Amino acid sequence: MTAIVIDASALAAYLLHEKGSETVGRYLVEGVDSIELVFKEAASAILTAERTGRIDRDQAEVCLEALRTIMGLNVRAAGQGDLLEESYEVARKHDTTVYDAMYVVLAKRLRVKLLTKDEKQAQVAREEGLGIVT
Predict the structure, then answer these.
(1) CATH number of domain containing 78
(2) Is the pLDDT reported for residue 1 higher than 60?
């Protein structure tokens, strides 16, 4: 497989064992790039899943432990400061959030595909000329 940028929707889907997350796992084994925010967003998705009853507290703890492991081994996290201005412009252009645009901008800079489970995110990436893995 080739280098890829992963967004929080894909990482959270993997951690929560959602349908279609097998693809994410294959990329994680090789290592992926992302922004520092991905860990906070994935942890928030785990918390939301627990709060809504999709998973229980013990399952949430297992997901958080997996996230801690992934943080140290499989995800290279880029700083966000250097991405801010371009992300702001991409967000403005596509009516999306700045933090979602950061994943797109990082993938553009690295000249790689974006791995996402978010259809709006995928559409923005396509419009910016990126390849998508879902």
Answers:
(1) 3.40.50.1010
(2) no
What pTM value is reported for the model?
0.92
What is the per-residue pLDDT for 2? 58
Q: For residue 65, is it within any domain?
A: yes
Q: Is residue 107 part of a domain?
A: yes
Which residues, 6 or more positions from 27, have their beta carbon under 8 angstroms from its beta carbon? 1, 4, 6, 115, 133
Structurally, how many domains does the chain consist of? 1
134 in a structural domain: no
Write out pLDDT tens, residues 17-40. Answer: 998 888 899 999 989 999 999 999
What is the Cβ-side half-sphere exposure of residue 31, based on CA atoms within 13 angstroms? 4
- Compute the distance between CA of residue 8 and CA of residue 47 in angstroms, rounded to an integer: 14
